[in-house]
Amino acid sequence: MKKYFKNKSFLFGFIFLTFILLIVIWGYINLPYDINEVNIKDKLAPFSKEHILGTDHLGRDILSRIMIGSRLSISIGFYVVLFGFLIGVPIGAISGYFGGFIDEIIKKIIDTLMAFPGVLIALMLIAVFGSTSTNIIIALTIMSIPRFSRIARGGYYTYRESPFILATKARGASTFRIMIIHIFNHVYGDLLVTASLTFASAVLSEAGLSYLGLGIQPPNPSLGKMVSDSQAYILQKPSYVIVPALFIIIVVMGFNLLGDGINKVVEEERENE
Amino acid sequence: MRYLYKKFLSALLTLLISSILTFVIFNVLPGDPAQVILGLDASEAQLTQLRESMDLDSPALYRYFNWLENAFQGDLGVSYKYQREVSLLIADAMKVTMQLSIYSLLLTLLISIPFGLLLVSKRDKKSFIPLSILSQVGMSIPSFCLAIFLIAIFTVQLQILPSIGYVSFLSDPIENFKSLLLPSLSIAIGASSIVVRYLNTSVQQQLKKDYVRTAYSIGLKEKAVLYQHVLRNALIPVITIVGLIVADILGGSIIIENVFNLPGIGKLIKSSITSRDLPLIQALVLYLSFIVIVVNFLIDILYKVIDPRIRIK
Amino acid sequence: MKRKLLINVLIICVIFFSMGCKDKTTAQTDIIRVNIASEPDSLDPWLSAAVDTKAIFNNVFEGLMKFDSTGDLYPAIAKNIIINETQDVYTFELRENVYFHNDKHLTSDDVVYTYENLHSMSGDIANSASYSGIEKVEALDDYTVRITLEKPSSAFLSTTTIAILPRGYDNQSTFPIGTGPYKFVEYQPSQKIVLERFDKYYNEEKMPEIKTAEIYIISDEASVVSALKSNQLDLAIISSENAKILEDQFKIDSSPMNMVVLWALNNSEPPFDSEKVRLALNLMVNRDDIVNGVFGGYATKLYTNFSPIMKHYYNEELDNYYQRDLETAKALLKEAGYEDGFEIDITVPSNYYQHVNSAQIISSEAEKLNIKVNIKNVEWGTWLEEVYTNRNYQSTIIGLAGKIDPNDILSRYETSYKRNFINYSNPKYDEVIEAAAKTIDDDKRVALYREAQQILSDTSASVWLCDPNNTAAMRKDLVGYEYYPAGLIDFSAMRYEK
């Protein structure tokens, strides 16, 4: 673990994400206000002791809504990465390890999906099937699968004929064992990087969809929706726009930096080998 | 020749399947196009008349085959909502999205290459850290947030750039550039941050290669090594990433078109879905599938050109 | 090399910024740029039903009669009307100098064509129920038309505001042609509509001063505000909330819209089948919060399905009919057998952010009565089908656009009305509405419509919230803007002060 923290990108990413996590946990333990409690007389209030980040256009506490909004963003990102990983990696592994006809087909599909603007798929899926959290996760997962598959495929393709794998094979290890343990050990670093970057882009896409009104639906708070709600008040109270925007940036940047850091460490290790 | 023939058949199949899927989905989906177009205050007679003109009362299967037959003859029908031929609507919208994409791509290159070079040349200096933080922020900020801030600064405060209204290139190239500058900048900043990052990593990798050591050992200066040898090799992987960036830009344009009220494909998609404009959606799906097929075909060819090993096989 | 590049970039920037500045200083006076929130529903005036579309295209089209800004009728294409005593024969004398925008001279033949078409005499179906009562349309000479009705109707005259279209022109839905002070130039989908002064307009006094009108289609409120602030619009229809921040820089006009925003309760779905529950909800809702929180204070609270702006027909006794009182509301719920509260859905169309906000305010309020509200956001198309047409919902929030004829507003609650999506059914109410439609004497008619409003409030048919203002912000030198409850942004009356 120490080698990771020596890397500045990783360290900063870690700090950003810890900050967000603390905010989310604080929301779990002691949410300052009910997120749906409307208080019109107090709307668009500035930063104060009662409302640390002020109130929104309906007088709701922004900090509380940020806490829950970040939690939603992060949990959506988490599910997207989890399912994307669980589906994408085996597909890529099989494709890369066995090659041949299956590989050709899978490669085609991955390329197609990569060439297609992801937001567009999500937009159509959600417009057609309705914007529930489940559908958002499904749409974003579909976008994330090819990323994992591509990396896994590349890794398994490179290592399947490497001397140490051939040696393991000669010792009589089963194909399954080789794929799960021996090669995976060498690929997981790259997959971790992908996971981190996918997390960032999932959060970004969710914010974009919510901004367009196709993501998380009110009264549930979402960082993207908060930006679009607050946009009309940018002249009255700029902080209302800046705060949720800042939180999106912190989450996304945290994961981007984390991914960068892991990437550098993995590469250094590879060189040392 | 056989290769092309096979490609063509599979493309046709893809288009057919996607058209069937869209048709089924939009027949199941709640929402009567006539009611959506005319709204709450429509009288029964107005609704009946509109439905008749859209041929909504015929059986679904009949309508699909009717559409298919016309589509084969190149007639994609008339949009319910806009009462215009969908091919014209799409052609107009495509012009806007294309221009937006081209401007975004140009801006991306215009920003990322100088910035990337700067970053590379400062890689051992103190100023590297703030510069790389800048590129990280650029990559993490959502395009719509950027758009909001750009509008607040350049449109509302400084009043030098418009935030609504698209002007076509032929009628006024300067106004056209101005109307698309903020939208494409919103997209380009994010995209160029990604390119900068790739360029940076790529250069770092090249610097570790043997030829760099050789170059230094024969007495070449730092700058010469960097600009004449390293950069050229480092740019190759960056060029491949530009292909992916194009998809990114197209995706980003959907959100940005809605922020800046630009009449492009993204706006057309959103409005056609909400108004249940089946002929328009059908055509858009066909069109986008077609683009994906063409892009894939080009990638295929490109691979073959770049990597001769595939050609031999 | 680097320095050269830098200099080039700088030069480009300077040129570019100076170009920008030029625009800023020249405020043009021969063009008016406004916004509308939604795409026109149809360019064909007989097919169009949306108020937004009418507000623009009533500049292009004219009927025999026209509405003025108070909702009264005055002759337009007709110069004189003779109505017989029993109100079933209407004779219109037409102006002789009216031209269509394609330079065709308007004669009684076009009027006959219009009304025959609207009534389906030419084979098509009637455009609306309003025209089905026409018995015959005759041209007495080139400039006189006589319309005979099957039975007397007090509302007929207000339906003669429909556009007169030229016979033999069938491109109305792509390139509309009318007789109004502005002619249609182009429509760029999801972008803008352009109109231009029609120089052969018959009324010299009302000849427009501003040559061109550009109407931008912008659905996003924030874009409208930034466009106005940056001089990209001369007149903007904005959300009332933003009026305050624009006050210093712009002239604001705010007037009631004659719209009814209501929390519609499906009367045949429990618990809303209970009158007590409906009354309790009326006592619970904090209308002030909605007026201030959603409409920035620019709205009139409503206690029945009728806006006070229609002074002639409005029942003033209903002002403040429901006094907010949570204790009584609780007691009523207990009487109705809902002591422990209940759970309800509010289905809101997600494209109307004001309604979504109102739902959130109501939901927060309802918690005090132990009522759990689920806000279901649906797309507009789904809303129209599921809620409006199939009535498959529990409650919803929607704005019903006002009409000039009270019958059009109040008949929504008639049992047999096709779009009575509230499922309100009250024989007494039906009787009153029917009687009012038949009555010709104005005083009696007014009394009946007031009674109808009273019945609605007495039975708490739904929870009426407010009539939001139509708020316009405009350049300070723009004069002549006026709000028309019938739906018109009258460009011909506007001009810029020097």
Features:
heterotrimer; A: 273 residues; mainly alpha; MetI-like fold; C: 498 residues; alpha+beta; D-Maltodextrin-Binding Protein, domain 2; Dipeptide-binding Protein, domain 1; Dipeptide-binding Protein, domain 3; 3 domains; six-stranded antiparallel beta sheet; four-stranded mixed beta sheet; 14 helices; 29% helix
Q: Specify the helix fraction band of chain C.
A: 25-40%
Quick one: biggest sheet of chain C? 6 strands, antiparallel
Q: What is the 3D form of chain C?
A: globular
CATH top level of chain A? Mainly Alpha
Terminal Cα span of chain C? 52 Å
Overall strand count of chain A: 0
Superfamily (CATH H level) name of the largest domain in chain C: Dipeptide-binding Protein, Domain 3
Structural class of chain A: mainly alpha
Description:
The complex is a heterotrimer of chains A (273), B (313) and C (498). In chain A, helix 8 runs antiparallel to helix 10. Chain A has ten helices and no strands. Chain A has 273 residues and is mainly alpha-helical. Chain A has a single domain, classed as Orthogonal Bundle (MetI-like fold). Chain B is built from 13 helices and no strands. In chain C, helix 7 runs antiparallel to helix 9 and helix 13 runs antiparallel to helix 14. Chain C is globular and about 70 Å long. About 2% of the residues of chain C have low confidence. Helices cover 29% and strands 22% of the residues of chain C. Chain C has three domains: 141 residues, 3-Layer(aba) Sandwich (D-Maltodextrin-Binding Protein, domain 2); 97 residues, Dipeptide-binding Protein, Domain 1 (Dipeptide-binding Protein, domain 1, Alpha-Beta Complex); 211 residues, Dipeptide-binding Protein, domain 3 (Roll), CATH 3.10.105.10. Chains in contact: A-B, A-C, B-C. At the A-B interface, helix 4, helix 5, helix 8, helix 9 and helix 10 of A face helix 6, helix 7, helix 10, helix 11 and helix 12 of B.
Compact overview of the structure:
Chain A is built from 10 helices and no strands.
What's the layout of helices and strands?
The complex is a heterotrimer of chains A (273), B (313) and C (498).
Chain A: H1 2-6, H2 8-29, H3 62-98, H4 100-115, H5 118-129, H6 133-159, H7 163-170, H8 175-211, H9 223-230, H10 238-272
Chain B: H1 2-28, H2 33-38, H3 44-53, H4 60-72, H5 86-121, H6 128-140, H7 143-157, H8 173-207, H9 210-217, H10 222-260, H11 265-274, H12 278-306, H13 308-312
Helix pairs in contact in B: 1-12, 5-8, 5-10, 5-11, 6-8, 7-8, 7-10, 8-10, 11-12
Chain C: H1 2-25, E1 31-36, H2 51-57, E2 65-67, E3 73-75, E4 78-83, E5 89-94, H3 108-118, E6 134-141, E7 144-149, H4 156-159, E8 182-188, E9 192-197, E10 212-217, H5 221-229, E11 235-238, H6 243-246, E12 251-256, E13 260-265, H7 275-284, H8 287-295, E14 299-301, H9 326-335, E15 343-349, H10 353-366, E16 372-378, H11 380-389, E17 395-400, H12 406-410, H13 427-438, H14 442-458, E18 463-474, E19 478-479, E20 495-496
Helix pairs in contact in C: 7-9, 8-10, 13-14
